[in-house]
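_Full entry_
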Amino acid sequence: NAIAEARAEIIKADREARTFFENMREDIVNARIDRDTTNIEILELKADLSSWSQAVGYIEQANELLIKNQKAQTTIMNNAKSRLADNKAVLDKYGFNYTKNGWLTQPEKTLEKLKKTQTPAEYEAIKEAYDEYVADMYRTIPQAEKEWWSLQQSIEENRKSIEETNKAMKEMIDEAKVSVLTSKFDSLSKSLDLIEAKMERVYGANKIY
């Protein structure tokens, strides 16, 4: 009837008003993550095809984007937690129970009861809040946290790669310098030996008369 439909619209409007900005913010952040992830992959390909010195520059740029994506995952987590609280405010009105960590306890019984006591339109409006709560609590938040740590691992691996590359480059330069000095020393030694031989012939025991 009209009254039941009006109540359902109120429930739906209340939830949408609470979660509108969180949903919009998440869409924007995910779009930026997709863009930066593509750019990271391009930089990694460039690094594979470049000289050592150029590769280090590309890896450093990739790390900057990885750090940005890590911050974006934090935004997604915080955004989902905010939306979680908004949907919980709706669910609290209809008898849902939770653990201290926010896990729903026996939600199927609560949903079954609501299906009997609410109109189909009201039930569907409540179920939407429930579905979004479950999606954030059991998927969005833990997945964002997992991705944060995966990005941290990539950042640390890149930093280690940069450090090892710079170390290897320094060793090669140092070895090249030693090689040049050794070559110069050998050349100088040969010159001195030649001079000594000549001096010996002029002034020494092997003096030529």
Observations:
- The mean pLDDT is 85.
- The helical segments are 2-48, 52-91, 107-117, 120-203.
- Residues 102 and 113 are 21 Å apart (CA to CA).
